Hints:
The chain is α/β, with parallel strands linked by helices. It has 3 domains: about 30-215, Rossmann fold; about 225-300, Orthogonal Bundle (Helicase, Ruva Protein, domain 3), CATH 1.10.8; about 305-380, Arc Repressor Mutant, subunit A, CATH 1.10.10.10. Helix content is about 50%, strand content about 10%. A hairpin with a 2-residue loop joins strand 7 (about 355) and strand 8. Helix 3 packs parallel to helix 5 (about 135-150), helix 5 (about 135-150) runs parallel beside helix 6 and helix 8 (about 225-235) crosses helix 9.
Amino acid sequence: MGIVAERAPANPFSPSFGTTPPLLAGRDEVLARFAEAIETGPTHPDYTLLVTGDRGTGKTALLNALEATAAERGWLTVSAAASSESLSERIAAEAVRCLEQLPGGRRRVRLGSLSVLGVGVELDPGDAIPIGSGSLTSVLEQLGEELTDARIGLLLTVDELHDVPRDDVRNVASAVQIVTRRRQRPVAFAAAALPLIEHSHLADPHMTFLQRCARAPLGPLTPEETRRALREPIVSRGSAIDDDALAEAVESTLGYPYMIQLVGFHAWRMRATTDEPISVVDIRAAIVEAEHAMVEQVAGPVWNRLSPMDRRFLVAMLQDETDSSLADIAARLDRSLQYARAYRRRLLAAGALSPVSAGRVRFRHHALRRRAQDAARDDPDLS
């Protein structure tokens, strides 16, 4: 009989969008408040929650963790995200499936003659209700009644809310507002979006429900949180990382959750053998790989949405090491200060810039600066 080699420990890091990292560092307060909310009920402000943050800050991972918190208490969950299909119709269809899982609901839901996404719904014999903006409220209200009787709840999560058409968002928001806030049914709501939602859906005067949702803005982790997010997964796999290597890794990520996963993932695989601790050499090689991925996967989507003049504005900022003066940018572009202010507003809304003061801005993330540098090198017309 041959000797079976012992399998090397699996890489503990998960640099894939939408997956939950091995250690969700820096989000304990949000999770604790949400756990308190679903124990308290619809009167708690965090029962309806809007998570905002740039790409790669862990919005989807946090939604996953919120769903796990609800599931631990026996709750049902309905998860949805922006797509070409109607959000309200998809949620209604999933809510019907939830009803069918409940003893009381199973008796009161049957297939009917009206069909949306291949499903027709009747809540009572002879009362067919088309799944749409009106009937979503009816389905959620019926589900809320059954959940109240079962002494559990439903968590409804929506990812990429900023990409959902505004009318569709209004339909969902209206239904949740009626069922959760007015009827006090156990239907909690958590959505994730890019910060640009502040200038789109949340600027709509008819979106009062979303405007009143509790906020969970996600920013960089602290150095200590970053240290934990890197070190603990490594130790959990029976390995180690040198102190100098850890310090350099922490500094390189700037507390950015996706960058943390990238550096950790590549450092793990860069080692000569799995028996060795991760070294400074491993970390430096990992940083190169991670920065390339950040430019392509985080900065790329932001850059691709920008207009030619938006891009020229960012390229004009490259002459400055940190923040840039609007007056200097206007002069470099041969435009007025008022013109530069208009583009400042556009680029803030697009998630490309961070405000420093009324007259100064900086790149939202160093990966976007790198993307602008690459573009300026490849296209002289941008300079």
